[in-house]
Amino acid sequence: MTGAAAIPLRALAQSGEDWAERKKRTNVRGLDIAYYEVGSGDPIIFLHGNPTSSYLWRNVIPHLEHLGRCIAPDMIGLGDSDPLP
Question: Cα separation of 76 and 61, whole Å?
């Protein structure tokens, strides 16, 4: 592969610990939401299902981050976000 789509495998296989360390947090109505963010430009939002987390997107985002600002939140109660109230 060549060009923007050529991404070394080591860049794709992030450990869960590495992924968690790179997450940011924001507070919404008193609850912390963790999210992974990379890139710049128009936002591309990656939503996971239940009972997963943003880690689901770890091998997809590196292929798309050159297209815009990739944001993968952990839904409340899942991943590194606060538990449900």
Answer: 21
